[in-house]
Write a structure and sequence with these properties.
alpha/beta; 27% strand; 32 strands
């Protein structure tokens, strides 16, 4: 009991929740060792300030908004917060890379790592998007700097200092994402940081990391060779290990989020009826954990939530795209190494633009923006005619047919990924559309463009959103059901069309006068010239987003033996490098009957 009372810093009852601070009756006077924790989450490679729609404008909670974000501004704010603090550590809470901005996406996210190194990041939780390529890519390339392909073309690009990419100066952690065969975590489950008191005594803080359990079946992070363990049990196990090592101060750095109820007006320090999986997690993880830093949901809050023993502890999230920094000041008892909860404070800081952006970080950003402009202009291939998303009467288009062929080619590059056919949603019933753009024949506005020329950046913008192509087993009867889902009855009784494009070895007909759900006959579906066999299992190549039902085709449920192939953007680049001249195919894969 005495250690418990010392931990919470109380000798009498009486607590009150005050946003991110806890007010309790004071303990006996004791000099503390104060440790500053600075964190941000879901950076996603936003080196440049995000637009308002990307999270670059956030509510203050006072009826106004503030402009935020940008790596150079983030650097300045971090430096100001650190000041001359002797005990400060900066870390990230996952999804730091796998960014969507072209200047990082087109360079294997290496620019993001260069910036994070410059920001002084000491460690990071592994977010779901850290697995958007593979566990080997995360550990061997991003963390260790191992190159693949042609240097400075495929990986290990020259950075802003003129040197080759060398990997992160920090490590990633997560205890609950493991190899499905061996059960071993992809990365280490926790990290211990050591600080010294003013008298020179060592105090240690343990940081446990876990990742949202849906990672291994998420659309971009789909990894059939991995499995996710229960987070609470994983955290309990790591907590017990740290306690056995004599570590009393423990922080949970978990990529699992939450949100205020009113996201439109809640300020970045609000704790307005916050809900979500991290709130439920906070109720269950051990009371020995003194603070919880979280991410994934891209929202901002600063709360004191009770642990299982009823004692409040900080639970914070710092939004996304470099908009906010979470600061927690842990007060440690130098005699025991325990956190005094009553003297621990948390606050979120907006990364505002009323400061001078850091010159060194801005130099890194400028380097990659300039290099991205050059990469965008690189010619990849030629086309003999236009590829457009404009559908014919059957819902077929030259652009969607091309991207279906790309997926078929992508899957069949390896024996493991071999596919009988490919499907792509040309206009999904919900969610994002991978058929993003046209490839017009005529010269565009870019100075490097010409009639019939396909630029690197044009291909990147036309197809995909960083999703892998999966090859999965689908029974013929289910494949027929998938094709039927191209027509979906809405709540008002109307029928919405959500056409699927098929690869060049497939054709089918449908009867629009038939009822929804009965417009495609299996005998009218030909795969390599043979009618669809309802009893056979076909290997189908489709984006993971489609396979998991995110764009409205839930008939994929029950798929078997998934194999992950190359990602959409990169595979299209590879396709164009292999097929130096491409031509629009006739629109004869889908026919209207009756």
């Amino acid at each position: 009991m005495r250690n418990f009372l010392r931990r919470i810093g109380v000798v009498a009852a009486g607590t009150a929740l005050l946003g991110g601070a806890l007010s309790v009756s004071p303990a006996a006077a004791v000099d503390t060792v104060d440790v500053q924790l600075l964190s941000f989450t879901d950076f996603h490679g936003y080196l440049q300030p995000p637009t308002a729609g990307q999270g670059g404008s956030i509510p203050t909670g006072r009826g106004t908004s503030v402009t935020v974000g940008g790596a150079a501004y983030l650097a300045t704010h971090l430096q100001r917060l650190r000041g001359d603090r002797p005990r400060s550590v900066t870390f990230a809470t996952g999804d730091s890379f796998s960014g969507w901005p072209f200047e990082v996406d087109a360079f294997q996210d290496e620019p993001t790592i260069e910036v994070l190194n410059k920001l002084g990041v000491r460690f990071s939780a592994m977010g779901n998007h850290e697995l958007d390529v593979s566990p080997e890519f995360l550990v061997q390339h991003m963390q260790e700097g191992r190159c693949f392909g042609t240097i400075d073309v495929d990986s290990c690009f020259t950075d802003s200092t003129g040197r080759r990419f060398h990997g992160a100066d920090f490590d990633f952690q997560s205890g609950n994402i493991v190899d499905a065969r061996t059960g071993r975590p992809v990365v280490e489950p926790y990290r211990v940081e050591t600080f010294r008191s003013d008298s020179g005594k060592r105090v240690r803080v343990g940081f446990i990391s876990t990742t949202v359990e849906a990672t291994v079946t998420g659309s971009t992070s789909f990894q059939p060779r991995l499995r996710a363990l229960d987070q609470v049990r994983t955290i309990e196990r790591s907590t017990a290990e740290l306690k056995r090592r004599g570590i009393e101060a423990i922080v949970l750095n978990v990529h699992e989020g939450g949100s205020p109820v009113n996201t439109a007006t809640a300020g970045y320090n609000a704790c307005d009826s916050v809900y979500g999986p991290v709130v439920e997690l906070a109720k269950k993880v051990p009371a020995e954990i003194d603070a919880i830093v979280t991410g994934d949901w891209h929202w901002r809050f600063n709360c004191m939530l009770p642990d299982p023993a009823g004692v409040p502890r900080p639970v914070v999230e710092a939004g996304n795209h470099g908009a906010v920094i979470s600061e927690i000041n842990l007060a440690l008892d130098p005699r025991t190494g325990e956190v005094l909860r009553d003297r621990t404070r948390s606050v979120n800081h907006a990364v505002t633009h009323d400061v001078t952006p850091d010159r060194d970080v801005q130099k890194i950003v400028d380097h990659w923006v300039a290099r991205a402009a050059r990469r965008f202009a690189e010619p990849l291939a030629r086309q003999t005619g236009p590829f457009t998303r404009t559908p014919n009467a059957a819902g077929e288009s030259t652009a969607a047919d091309l991207y279906a062929d790309v997926q078929y080619w992508n899957a069949n590059r390896t024996p493991e990924g071999r596919a009988d056919l490919a499907l792509i949603s040309a206009r999904p019933a919900k969610g994002s559309n991978a058929v993003r753009g046209d490839l017009p024949f005529a010269k565009g506005s870019h100075l490097a463009d010409a009639d019939g020329r396909i630029l690197f950046g044009e291909s990147w913008n036309a197809y995909g959103y960083g999703n892998p192509v999966l090859t999965v087993g689908v029974k013929g009867s289910r494949l027929d059901a998938i094709l039927e889902q191209q027509w979906q009855t809405q709540a008002d009784g109307t029928v919405r069309s959500a056409p699927l494009a098929v690869s060049r070895n497939v054709s089918y007909g449908y009867d629009p006068t038939r009822p929804v759900g009965d417009r495609v006959s299996p005998r009218d579906v030909l795969i390599d010239g043979r009618p669809l066999d309802p009893t056979r299992t076909y290997r189908v190549a489709a984006l993971a987003y489609t396979v998991v039902g995110a764009d409205g085709y839930d008939a994929f449920a029950g798929y078997t033996a998934p194999v992950r192939n190359g990602a959409d953007h990169e595979s299209f680049v590879d396709y164009l490098k292999t097929h130096r001249t491409i031509s629009p195919a006739p629109l004869d894969r889908v026919r209207v009957k009756g």
